[in-house]
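Hey, I'm writing a tutorial for new members on how sequence and structure tokens pair up, and I'd like a real worked example in the thread rather than a made-up one. If someone can provide the structure for the chain below, I'll link this post from the tutorial.
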Amino acid sequence: MLSAWLILLLVTVSVFAPFLANDRPIVYRGSNRFEYRDALRTALVVSAQAMRESGAATDSAETFNRQIERLAIELPDESAAELRSLGKKMEAAIGSSDVSAIGPLRTKLRRTFDIRKTNLRGRWRFPVLASLDWSDILFLTLILLVWTMPVWRPVLRAVISAEHPLGRASGQLALFVVLPTLAAMTWHLSVPQRVDRTNYKSGVWQTAELDLSKTSAHVVFETVTWPPIAYGLDEDNLDAKFLASGERAPDPKDASAEVTWGGPHWLGTDGIGRDILCRMIWGGRISLAVGIVAVSIYMTIGIIVGSIAGYFGGWTDMIISRLIEIVIVFPSFFLILTIVAFIGPSIFNIMVVIGVTGWTGVARLVRGEFLRLGQQEFVLAGRALGYSPLRIIFRHVLPNALAPVLVSATFGIAGAILTESALSFLGFGITIPKPSWGGILASGREAMIRAPWLIYFPGFAIFLTITAYNLVGEALRDAADPRLRGQS
């Protein structure tokens, strides 16, 4: 149980990585001067292109209108109304390709709403939340459902009785599937994805003495809340190379530099000044995802192939068994190395290759269970009633054969994590800048004496995770076989 809680904690930390380790604030109130300058520059470029290329007038008008709206939300109400009025005139001139009208309006836009002459309004913003995509929302909703089970489970039991046709177990499963899917779809349809290029760490505090016309700060903060590890995934600092655990980056050499945001590097830094704890948290996403997805792939293949071989028998079983023996002869790790070397390293390729090469053990296990259950009375009764083979396989036999398969899957996740770590250590794994525990471990080979923490921390994370999965697998094996549990 301790290992299961540890795995859940590791998965939770990985899922909440954007809120735990990020160079963007979780929430702040203030003005984003960079976005304003970028939108104004884009609007001026679009209007200049419209003066030269009248054929693209419709697209230019739409793009210009979007930039005007980006500018307007940064301004006080009175200035925003004036900007929208000017924007409508320019949009009409761009749409009609009236070059003589665009020029004066463009000049007025540039002079009147220049960032040095305009006071932006402060408003609440959520940069981390805006950076999430649908997959982040899916897993965030799923993990929140797991942690809040003690709250919503009694409510679900009160709503759905034991005699309900849906059933309490089916209701819980439907909740875990439907709610995260709806949340992800809603987010994907309602929140547009965009690249946020704002350097929030160049921000300054809003004070009475601050002269906004002379500052180059991207953001002016009235209040701000940073993540616990306020460093980016690939944020480097050559003045903070190979810092030991708990050390803080030195003060900037330029005395006129803006206020810096950050904190101590709790697990130290690497050879280019990147925070190791931040990369460990984000690397857990890769390492854990590879194990879960790869095992899901080869479990699906193994269950289907093993079910067909065990149920039909005869020539079908013989052909499939020979195929399994041929595939299982090849050393899996060297086969993965060969395939990855040809198709190139990436997280998707690694997950697929591990999944495609690891199905043989599951197939043999499922085949054995089907051979054991194939002559049971409930299977013979299904055949006598004329049930189709698909119904007998997936509705009657397979549910009774899944216990040892789940045990094998738990051990398989640990093996897949170890395989990905080994591939990344050898340089065939996840490519830069995406981190994984094996990749961080590999980066410490050349600095083992100078920065041993680059070996210790990812190595310990891999050891701890694999040990936890193996202990959970042993517990599931004992639970599936009462005789083993009695002997222990």
